[in-house]
Amino acid sequence: MRRGSWQRQRGIACAGALAGVALALCGGCAVGPDYHRPAFATTDAYKESADWKPSEPNDALDRGPWWNLFNDPELAQLEGKIVISNENVKAAAAAVTQARALVDQARAGFWPTISAAFGAQRGATGPAPVQSTGTASLTGDWTLDIWGEVRRTVESDSASAGSTVAALAAATLAAQAELATDYFELRAQDQLQKLLDDTVVAEQKSLAITQSRYRYGVAAKADVVNAQTQLLNSQAQQINAKIQRGILEHAIAVLVGLQPAEFSLPATAIRSDVPTVPAGVPSSLLERRPDVAEAERKMAASNAQIGIAVSAYFPSLTLSGSDQYENSAFSRLLSVSNRIWAVGPQLAETLIDGGLRRAQVAQARAAYDASVDNYRQTVLAGLEQVEDQIVTLRVLEQQAVVEDAAVAAAKLAEKLTLNQYKAGTVPYSSVITAQTTRLGSEETALTVLSSRLQASVSLIAALGGGWSADVPSGSTMPYDTPRPAIRPAMSTHSTDGHL
Questions:
Q1: Is residue 437 part of a domain?
Q2: Each residue of 399-418: pLDDT tens digit?
Q3: Is the link from the previous residue into 275 a cis peptide, with omega within 30 of 0?
Q4: Which residues contact 217 (CB under 8 A, 6 or more apart)?
Q5: CA geometry: angle at 269 spanning 263 and 273, to 5°?
Q6: 3 occurs within a structural domain
Q7: What local confidence, expressed as pLDDT, does residue 489 receive?
Q8: Distance between CA atoms of residues 260 and 84, nearest Å
Q9: Is residue 326 within a helix (H) or strand (E), and if so which, with residue range?
């Protein structure tokens, strides 16, 4: 057998053997603790819902977009623009793409790095004649993932990508909830404007009655002045109400990705009923709120970082190989006589680092502990928000009954007082008092209604909106947001990694 052929076969055999060893070693353990989501024991029911019986009919969250619960086509049309046009949501979506690219980068660590080079040079040393030199080379390096550093990195980056998906869902839900809140507040301003318009018309009629009585000498000049003052005050309120509506309209325009100058909403009366939002049970919050899922994924990412830090204690094994040709004649460059090849492993281990690795492991464990605390605090904050909105809705529902009765009584009192003034049995100051009381009662009742609608939106947002971690893989959220991966694939060969 020719010597060159024997060397080539021996090189191939060595490379094959090393590759086999590499594959066997890569199937070994991944150091560091495997991830298990910490338990969080929730109560069986919300405290504030104990004595709250939701109003009938008992509506439920729609199986589609949650805002359909309010049965408002204009609101639904605006909400549909959030995912497409809201700049904050688009930025969060870009962060998801970036995070997924980082996962792909981490997975590249499983594979060898192979590079090729070709070069040509002309040169001479001293008086020697000018010579041409050609080179061609192929090199490869493969750092084996014996201790699971790459696997833990992929695990950490995958969990971080899941957290960005949940953050996208949270940003989408926040924008949707803010839009619904602004929308109902704007409709309340429309209703307030109508209320003030009607009040101005009624007070103009009262002023006309007072002026007529004054002309016939049955009313004092003071009555006319008081009626004019009351009318002017109401007209001032009528004008001022336009400010808040304009501000809310501008805010809605920005939420749907438009300039305020490009957007307008025609005035419409506010809905008179408030749909019921079932709160469910506290345990469902762990699967429904995207911010809880985000915190949980960050916790999983921090856990994988412990394994990455622990892997630094162990030696790294790199397989290297090269095949190079060099000759002055390009036509004979790729001949066996011009070949220089090498293949072999390299084992590296840090012997003394001044406690660097120990400190890095301690840092990773502390970061994980902090992420656990942040996760639990996120859950607690979510439970608090739900309880807050339940008590708000319960109390406002009770207050609304009283306010509606107060409005009916105030309207009747105003009507009776005006008739008594026409009959000359009460002074005009009594009419002003009755009108002021009626307007105040209607404004308070409107504020309660608006607050109830906004609290319903806040409760839906606190419950996670239409988002759910239980959506099957491959499907989408009601608002087309991809689901986060709640649990990453774990190595079945991992050790606890305690040193």
A1: yes
A2: 999 999 999 999 999 999 99
A3: no
A4: none
A5: 120
A6: no
A7: 29
A8: 17
A9: strand 316-327
Q: Rounded to 5 degrees, what are φ and ψ at 233?
A: -65, -45
pLDDT for 174 = 92
Residues 6+ apart with CB under 8 A from 248: 182, 185, 186, 189
Mean pLDDT, to the nearest integer, of 322-336? 71
First to last CA, the chain: 53
Percentage of residues in the chain having pLDDT higher than 90: 51
The encoded tokens of residue 382 equal: 């979510």
CATH number at residue 378: 1.20.1600.10
pLDDT for residue 327: 72
Q: How far apart are CA 145 and CA 22, in angstroms?
A: 9
Confirm whether 346 is domain-assigned: yes
Judge whether 133 and 121 are in contact, CB under 8 Å.
yes
With cut-offs at 50, 70 and 90, classify the pLDDT of residue 362. Answer: very high
Beta-bridge partners for 140:
114, 321
Of the given ranges (159-168, 283-292, 355-364, 400-409), which has the lowest mean pLDDT?
A: 283-292
Give me the number of domains the chain comprises.
Answer: 1
- Any idea of the CA torsion for 190, 196, 202, 207, to the nearest 10 degrees? -150
Q: Please give the pLDDT value at position 328.
A: 66
Domain of 45, in residue numbers: 28-109+134-178+262-314+321-462
Q: Are 109 and 153 in contact (CB under 8 A)?
A: yes
Burial track 166-188 (b if 16+ CB lie within 10 A, e otherwise): bbbbbbbbbbbbbbbbbbbbbbb
> Does 19 map to a domain?
no
Cα of 154 vs its chain's centroid, Å: 23
Question: Which pLDDT score, from 0 to 100, does residue 477 have?
Answer: 35
* Distance, CA of 94 to CA of 88 (rounded, Å): 10
Sheet bearing 113-123, strands edge to edge = 113-123, 131-143, 316-327, 339-348
The pTM (predicted TM-score) of the whole model is 0.80
Residue 148 near residue 30 (C-beta atoms within 8 A): yes
Cβ-proximal residues to 302 (8 Å cutoff; 6+ apart), any chain? 156, 364, 367, 368, 370, 371
Structure tokens given for 25: 């070693």
Cβ-count burial of 466 within 10 angstroms (0-12 exposed, 13-18 middle, 19+ buried)?
buried
